[in-house]
């Protein structure tokens, strides 16, 4: 009950309009500025041009030719042009000259594919489509022995089994500048709550209210928990508002699984708050605020709050993997654009784990100390 | 109550950190891929091992330790066998709560070897090494800590003993002083008795002779002159006796009260380079010899301190007799001390003052000053 | 029963001894004054009593219960008015008092009632919705007190509650302290202002370098220095003065006449001023001015500690 009272007291900060404006407006404005100014830096709008693939069909199987024609037809619709090479043409040279992104040679023993090293993306797409075809054909060939209708069904494919459904190939689902910064700025602004957390206990000390809290029949743990809970709830509310505004006003894409995204953000809040609190106990006095500020700035810089670091390699890549923001950012991006849960669990475990260690340190130091 | 952190915890945490880094580095080299589960188990290990020091009750401590051991066992079997190396320290910690015999504990620490020999032979030797080293480390720590505790207890006992001795010494001194005083009183009593007995009697004798001489003055002048001569002799002797007795009886004034203090201060300043001044106000004669004694001894101590530490050039002693309190302040113009730390000297002064229900105030903010306050009247 | 019992209490900070073996007790209904220079150990002692600092050595009992063993009981029965303002500037006066009173287990209607009562008591009944940042120093001090009394403590500890405020607010606060005391609250009061302590405290301890060097009522403390007071009476003409009759009045020790001033030295414990004046009037002396000189507490403090309370 006392914990709840102290928590409610912490939440009263919201009533200060200036504070609220700062807490809400600053992330949104940063998002807007970075999201619009840096649009060019993102290839979200870059579309893949027509993909031309040269092929030579040396197969003797009649079934195969039928299926292959069918396939080329389907591919044309998807923007992949499969062109039959005449006998004289050397497919490999054509590819080398970058007239085609790939060259496929079909024989009875299988399908050979030479890909271009110049247009990697297009060639990659073509390769994956061809692989899919080859796989299906192999299956159909086996089935055809017993049931040819089934084999036809496999090869013609119905809507859901179309060759080109992979969403990762869909250009619209790559993060645009606004999508990216909606995520990055939200995680960064959460990390800033470490700064407030560093002042959490020190603030009571400075206002001398720590004296009253300690003199009252409330245990130190209750005070600690109440204040912590207050800060976490406050930040959770702010985060939800920021996310919703970015989603509905700025049209940032937050994926299908908003609940899970919030869960990641929530664990990050707990981590950030514990970081600030832990450091404020380890480093006494005003220095803790400075240290927390430096950590936040470094984490933001390395963790991709100002520019994406996904593709960073080498030294920079190693550094960025140290940033606590990187876990959360990576997890969120994976979740939103790839529906990949493993990174999500990673990030949540790391956040909670570090939070527990930091809080443990803070609690141990607090028990030792006289006063709060 | 110990205000500072116990060193034991820091030492145990230190060895754990060393082992953990060894495990981390070794396993990184052998697997070169750090999985989430790997990170998680390290975090769990850290959490549990930190919370061992947070909980206070032995029972909850054992629970946390059991959990930690369980976590180690699980992570060593599923994630990396090297985690096993973290086990011996926790085994020691757990059983050290309950077992006195270290031989048993070392056996328990080595017990997992049986399991390891079947499932993870690669770390068999390393485990043995780590277990034995951990055991020795803890044994050493244990011995060192218990010896420290013993020494500290011993020191405290001695300190208390010294205090008691100082106190009884002061009391004894007081007793001597008191009996000294009583003896003096008795002596005076005896002397006055003597005056009364001897001189009184001889004077009476002289008076009788003179009376007789007066009667015989006309009838027998010769006899009268003889008697008179006798009386003169008796009187002369009497006066001599009076002088002798008085000289013996009256204590020399320089032996008492403020005069004795003056003498002492003069002696002190003759020997030392500092200038000293003694001032007093109020009725110093009303002070008892015991009070004087305490004051003088404290003053002596304070002066010695001033000479030793203060670099002062002037030391002043002020005795103030208020209505119900005597205040004696010995202050110098030296460097003073921002923080006054009670040494044996100050404790001694305190004890002396306490023997007459007084207190000592030591101040180092404006030069150094020692004030003795003694209730009185 | 003694509301507070302190036995051989000591507090060390490292090697420094802030409170050195003090023993004292405060009885129910007293206003107990703590006099001491800055750093004398007053606040340290008070903070140990209020469980804000750990005790190095010794025992503290509140209402007969040891505070180490019955920490919650002790805290429930103690209210503390810290020297520094301890209020939240971003919460209204009402919210401040309600928050702190709520920590003492007060709930619902009772809580509301007590908060209103406490605010009215310190004269902030019309300032419920105001924020302390807009308050004057005196109003903040009063709010500081309201936060400490809403839970009706048996023992109220006030550490310099009147520092740096206007005389009007100070008088109000002193009045409130007396009123609280009349309502049955035992009070420990520290102040730099000797006259405040002299005015309201029933018993006073002088503390210096961590030790209590004198303790007692005002009269007892003054009697340490002297039990005499000087009364100077200026008259138009002292010719008709009947000296022997004046000397016969109880307590009068000496009468001297200097020109037109009659100087009477008397026992300070006996209140005989009225009788002296009556005697002078009976002798038909026209009294122009009467001045009574007693040693002040300030003098006592100065004599015992060698410094004035104010020259910090």
Automatic annotation (TrEMBL), chain A:
Keyword Cell membrane attached: yes
Q: What residue stretches are annotated with the ABC transmembrane type-2 domain?
A: 123-369
Q: Name one GO molecular function term.
A: ABC-type transporter activity
Transmembrane spans: 20-42, 180-201, 221-246, 258-283, 290-309, 343-366
**What is the first-listed, main subcellular location in coarse terms?**
membrane
Topology relative to the lipid bilayer, per the entry, is: Multi-pass membrane protein
Which PROSITE patterns does this UniProt record tie to the protein? ABC_TM2 (PS51012)
Localization terms from the record:
Cell membrane
Keyword terms: Cell membrane, Membrane, Transmembrane, Transmembrane helix, Transport
Query: Which InterPro entries has this protein been placed in?
Result: ABC-2_transporter_component, ABC2_TM, ABC2_TM_bact-type
**Cellular component terms per the entry's GO annotation:** plasma membrane
Q: Output the superkingdom of the source species.
A: Bacteria
The family assignment reads: Belongs to the ABC-2 integral membrane protein family.
Q: What is this protein called?
A: ABC-2 type transport system permease protein
TrEMBL record, chain B:
Which keywords appear in this protein's UniProt record, sorted alphabetically?
ATP-binding, Kinase, Membrane, Nucleotide-binding, Phosphoprotein, Transferase, Transmembrane, Transmembrane helix, Two-component regulatory system
The protein's GO terms of the molecular function aspect are: ATP binding; phosphorelay sensor kinase activity; protein dimerization activity
Gene3D superfamilies named among the record's database cross-references: 1.20.5.1930, Histidine kinase-like ATPase, C-terminal domain
Catalytically driven reaction(s): ATP + protein L-histidine = ADP + protein N-phospho-L-histidine
Keyword Protease included in the entry's annotation: no
Q: Which CDD domains match?
A: HATPase_UhpB-NarQ-NarX-like (cd16917)
Q: Show the SUPFAM superfamilies listed in the entry.
A: ATPase domain of HSP90 chaperone/DNA topoisomerase II/histidine kinase
Q: Where are the transmembrane segments?
A: 7-25, 37-55, 62-83, 95-116, 123-145
Q: Give a GO cellular-component term.
A: membrane
Q: What is its EC number?
A: 2.7.13.3
**UniProt key word Nucleotide-binding:** yes
Q: What class of enzyme is it?
A: transferase
Q: Where is the Signal transduction histidine kinase subgroup 3 dimerisation and phosphoacceptor domain?
A: 187-253
PANTHER family to which the protein is assigned, alphabetical: NITRATE/NITRITE SENSOR PROTEIN NARX-RELATED (PTHR24421), NITRATE_NITRITE SENSOR PROTEIN NARQ (PTHR24421:SF10)
Q: What is this protein called?
A: histidine kinase
From TrEMBL, chain C:
Could you read off the lineage of the organism from its UniProt record? Bacteria, Bacillati, Bacillota, Bacilli, Bacillales
What keywords were assigned to this record?
ATP-binding, Nucleotide-binding, Transport
Lineage: superkingdom: Bacteria
Which GO terms of the molecular function aspect are on file? Answer: ATP binding; ATP hydrolysis activity
Question: Is Nucleotide-binding tagged as a keyword?
Answer: yes
A Pfam match is DrrA1-3_C
- Source organism of this protein record: Paenibacillus endophyticus
Domain ABC transporter per the UniProt entry, residue ranges: 4-234
In terms of PROSITE patterns, this protein maps to:
ABC_TRANSPORTER_1, ABC_TRANSPORTER_2
Name of the molecule in the record: ABC-2 type transport system ATP-binding protein
């Amino acid at each position: 009950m006392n914990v709840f009272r102290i928590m409610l007291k912490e939440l009263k900060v919201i009533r200060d309009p200036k504070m609220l404006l700062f807490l809400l407006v600053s992330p949104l404005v940063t998002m807007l500025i970075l999201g619009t100014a840096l649009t060019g830096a993102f290839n979200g709008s870059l579309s893949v041009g027509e993909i031309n693939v040269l092929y030579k069909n040396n197969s003797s199987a009649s079934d195969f030719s039928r299926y292959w024609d069918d396939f080329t037809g389907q591919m044309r619709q998807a923007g992949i042009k499969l062109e039959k090479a005449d006998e004289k043409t050397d497919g490999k040279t054509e590819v080398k000259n970058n007239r085609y992104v790939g060259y496929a040679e079909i024989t009875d023993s299988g399908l050979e594919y030479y890909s271009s090293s110049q247009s990697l993306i297009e060639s990659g797409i073509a390769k994956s489509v061809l692989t899919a075809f080859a796989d299906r054909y192999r299956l159909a060939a086996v089935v055809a022995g017993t049931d040819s209708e089934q084999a036809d069904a496999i090869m013609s494919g119905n809507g859901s089994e179309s060759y080109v459904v992979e969403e990762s190939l869909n250009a619209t689902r790559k993060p645009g500048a606004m999508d990216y910064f909606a995520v990055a700025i939200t995680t960064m602004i959460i990390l800033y709550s470490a700064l407030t957390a560093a002042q959490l206990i020190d603030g009571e000390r400075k206002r001398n209210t720590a004296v009253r809290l300690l003199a009252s029949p409330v245990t130190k743990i209750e005070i600690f928990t109440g204040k912590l809970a207050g800060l976490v709830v406050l930040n959770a509310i702010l985060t939800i508002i920021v996310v919703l505004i970015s989603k509905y006003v700025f049209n940032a894409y937050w994926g299908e699984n908003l609940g899970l995204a919030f869960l990641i953000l929530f664990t990050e809040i707990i981590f950030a708050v514990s970081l600030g609190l832990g450091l404020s106990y380890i480093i006494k006095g005003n220095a803790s605020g400075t240290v927390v500020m430096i950590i936040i700035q470094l984490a933001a810089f390395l963790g991709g709050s100002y520019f994406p670091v996904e593709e960073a390699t080498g030294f920079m890549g190693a550094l960025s993997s140290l940033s606590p923001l990187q876990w959360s950012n990576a997890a969120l991006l994976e979740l939103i654009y790839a529906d990949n849960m493993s990174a999500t669990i990673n990030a949540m475990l790391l956040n909670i784990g570090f939070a527990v260690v930091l809080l443990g340190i803070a609690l141990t130091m607090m028990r030792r100390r006289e006063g709060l | 109550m110990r205000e500072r952190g116990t060193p034991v915890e820091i030492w145990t945490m230190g060895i754990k950190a060393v082992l953990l880094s060894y495990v981390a580095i070794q396993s990184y080299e052998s697997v070169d891929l750090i999985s989430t589960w790997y990170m998680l188990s390290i975090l769990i290990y850290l959490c549990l091992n930190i919370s061992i020091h947070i909980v206070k009750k032995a029972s909850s401590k054992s629970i946390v330790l059991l959990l930690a051991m369980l976590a180690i066992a699980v992570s060593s079997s599923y994630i990396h066998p090297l985690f096993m190396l973290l086990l011996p320290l926790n085994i020691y910690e757990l059983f050290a709560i309950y077992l006195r015999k270290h031989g048993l504990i070392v056996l328990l620490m080595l017990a997992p070897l049986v399991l390891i020999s079947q499932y993870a032979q690669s770390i068999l030797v390393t485990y043995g090494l780590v277990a034995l080293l951990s055991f020795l480390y803890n044994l050493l720590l244990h011995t060192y800590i218990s010896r420290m505790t013993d020494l500290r207890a011993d020191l405290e006992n001695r300190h208390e003993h010294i205090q008691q001795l100082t106190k009884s010494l002061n009391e004894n001194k007081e007793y001597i002083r008191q009996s000294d005083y009583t003896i003096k009183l008795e002596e005076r009593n005896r002397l006055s008795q003597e005056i009364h007995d001897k001189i009184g009697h001889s004077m009476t004798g002289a008076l009788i002779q003179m009376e007789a001489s007066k009667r015989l003055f006309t009838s027998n002048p010769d006899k009268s002159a003889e008697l008179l001569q006798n009386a003169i002799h008796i009187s002369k002797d009497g006066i001599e006796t009076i002088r002798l007795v008085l000289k013996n009886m009256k204590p020399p004034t320089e032996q008492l009260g403020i005069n004795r203090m003056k003498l002492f201060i003069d002696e002190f300043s003759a020997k030392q380079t500092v200038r000293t001044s003694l001032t007093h106000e109020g009725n110093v004669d009303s002070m008892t010899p015991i009070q004087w004694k305490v004051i003088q001894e404290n003053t002596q101590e304070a002066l010695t301190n001033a000479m030793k530490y203060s670099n002062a050039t002037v030391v002043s002693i002020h005795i103030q007799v208020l209505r119900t309190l005597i205040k004696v302040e010995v202050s110098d113009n030296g460097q003073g001390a921002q923080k006054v730390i009670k040494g044996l000297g100050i404790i001694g002064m305190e004890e002396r003052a306490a023997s007459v229900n007084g207190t000592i105030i030591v101040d180092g903010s404006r030069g150094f000053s020692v004030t003795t306050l003694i209730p009185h009247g | 029963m003694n509301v507070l019992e302190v036995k051989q209490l000591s507090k060390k900070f490292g090697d420094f001894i802030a409170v050195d073996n003090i023993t004292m007790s405060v009885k129910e209904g007293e206003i107990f004054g703590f006099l001491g220079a800055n750093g004398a150990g007053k606040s340290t002692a008070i903070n140990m009593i209020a469980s804000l600092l750990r005790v190095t050595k010794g025992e503290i009992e509140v209402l007969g219960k040891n505070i180490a063993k019955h920490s919650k009981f002790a805290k429930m029965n103690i209210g503390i008015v810290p020297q520094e303002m301890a209020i939240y500037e971003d919460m209204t006066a009402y919210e401040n008092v309600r928050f702190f009173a709520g920590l003492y287990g007060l709930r619902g209607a009772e809580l509301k009632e007590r908060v209103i009562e406490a605010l009215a008591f310190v004269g902030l009944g019309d300032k419920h919705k105001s924020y302390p940042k807009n308050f004057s120093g005196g109003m903040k001090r009063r709010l500081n007190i309201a936060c400490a009394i809403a839970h009706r403590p048996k023992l109220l500890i006030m550490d310099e509650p009147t520092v740096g405020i206007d005389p009007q607010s100070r008088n109000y606060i002193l009045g409130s302290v007396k009123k609280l005391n009349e309502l049955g609250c035992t009070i420990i009061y520290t102040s730099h202002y000797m006259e405040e302590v002299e005015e309201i405290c029933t018993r006073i301890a002088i503390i210096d370098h961590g030790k209590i060097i004198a303790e007692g009522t005002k009269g007892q403390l003054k009697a340490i220095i002297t039990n005499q007071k000087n009364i100077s009476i200026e008259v138009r003409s002292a010719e008709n003065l009947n000296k022997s009759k004046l000397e016969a009045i109880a307590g009068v020790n000496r009468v001297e006449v200097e020109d037109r001033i009659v100087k009477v030295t008397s026992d300070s414990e006996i209140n005989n001023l009225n009788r002296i004046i009556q005697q002078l009037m009976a002798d038909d002396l026209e009294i122009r001015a009467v001045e009574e000189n007693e040693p002040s507490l300030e003098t006592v403090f100065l004599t015992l500690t060698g410094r004035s309370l104010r020259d910090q």
